[in-house]
Amino acid sequence: MSSRARYALPLLTLGAIAALAVAVLVGSGPAGLRTLAGALTGDADPLELRILADLRLARALAAFGTGAALAVAGVLMQVLLRNPLADPYILGTSGGAAVAALSLMMVGATPLVVDMGAFGGALGVTFLVFALARNSGAWHSGRLLLTGVVIAAACGAAISLLLAISPEAGLRGVLFWLMGDFAYVTDARPVLALAAAGTVTAFAFARSLDVLATGARQGALLGLEVGRLRLGIYGIGSLLTAVAVTTAGIVGFVGLVVPHLVRMVAGSNHRVVVPGSALAGGTLLVLADMLARTLIAPRQLPVGAITAAVGVPVFLALLARSAPRGAGR
C-alpha cells in the first residue's frame, strides 16, 4: 500500500468530521458557535439548541449518509461494468427508484411502502438494463452503458408525465425533492445505517472487487464466483441508490466523480477505495447541502444543482487529464 493510500482514510475521516461540524454551526439564523459554547456552560437558548441538534445536525447526517450511499453505489457500478462512466444516475437506477417512489407518493402510500417501492424500482431497472443489454449470453460494458442511458431517459419521461398529472399544490415540493432536497429530513438513522451496512459489505468483498475489475473471465479463472458476486453488486447498488433517492431525491455526479478522485489519490485497491469513497461522498454532499441552504438564504437551492455545478467541471477536468497525449492529431 502506497504512502498516499495509507494516509488517505485518516485525512478523509478528519475532513468528514470537519464538514459535519461546519454544517452544524453555519446557517442563516443566530444559532452557531456561541450557542454551542453556551450549551457547555448551560446558558444557551433552547430554541437555538434545537436548531443545531434537530435541524442542522439531522440534515447534515442525512446528507452524509446519502453521499456515502451514492459514492459506494458508484464504485460498485464501475467495477461491475468496468467503465468509469457508470453510476446510478447514468444507468437509470436512480430514475427507476424515483419513478416508483413518486408514483407511490401520489397515491398516498406510507413512507415504508415508498421506501420498499423505491428499492423495487431501482432493482427492477437494474435488471431491465442488464436483460436488454445481454447479447449472445454475454454482457458488453459499452452496450450496458448505452442501454442504461436510454432507460434513464425513459425514466425521465415517466417522471415528467407524473409531474404533469400531479396536483399543483405540492408540485414545488416534489420538484425540489426530485432535484435533491434535505429540508424535510427529520431522522437520518435509516440512510446512515444502510449506507454503513453497504460500505461494510462492499469492504468485506474488496479483494473480490479487485479481481472482478480485471474482467469476468480473469475472475472465473482465479476461482471467483462471478455470477453470485454480480448479483450481490446488483442488490447492494440498488439498495444504496433507493435509500438515497427516498431520502433526498435524485442527486447526480456524486457516484460518478467521487470514486475517480479517490482512485487518483489512493490507487485502485478497493480496501481503500470503498471506505474512502463513502467518506468523500458524504463530505461532498454535506458541504453541497450547506451551500444550498446558505448561498441565497433564507431561500434554498436544490442540492442537486450544487453537485452538478461542482461535478461537471471536475469530471471534464478528469477526462482531459486522462486523455492520451496526441489524441485526435
Describe this protein with a few key phrases.
329 residues, mainly alpha, ABC transporter involved in vitamin B12 uptake, BtuC, 14 helices
Which structural class best describes the helix and strand composition? mainly alpha
CATH superfamily: ABC transporter involved in vitamin B12 uptake, BtuC
Give me the count of strands. 0
Please name the CATH topology: ABC transporter involved in vitamin B12 uptake, BtuC
Question: Could you explain how this protein is built, in words?
Answer:
The chain is mainly alpha-helical. The chain has a single domain (3-317), classed as ABC transporter involved in vitamin B12 uptake, BtuC (Orthogonal Bundle). The protein is 76% helix and 0% strand. The chain has helices spanning 3-25, 33-41, 46-81, 93-106, 111-133, 141-165, 171-179, 189-204, 206-212, 216-221, 226-248, 254-266, 270-294, 303-322. The longest helix has 36 residues, at 46-81. It starts with a helix and ends in a 7-residue tail after the last helix. The mean pLDDT is 84.
Task: Walk me through the topology.
Layout: H1 3-25, H2 33-41, H3 46-81, H4 93-106, H5 111-133, H6 141-165, H7 171-179, H8 189-204, H9 206-212, H10 216-221, H11 226-248, H12 254-266, H13 270-294, H14 303-322
Summarize the structure.
This protein is mainly α and about 325 residues long. The protein has helices spanning about 5-25, 35-40, 45-80, 95-105, 110-135, 140-165, 170-180, 190-205, 205-210, 215-220, 225-250, 255-265, 270-295, 305-320. The two termini are about 35 Å apart.
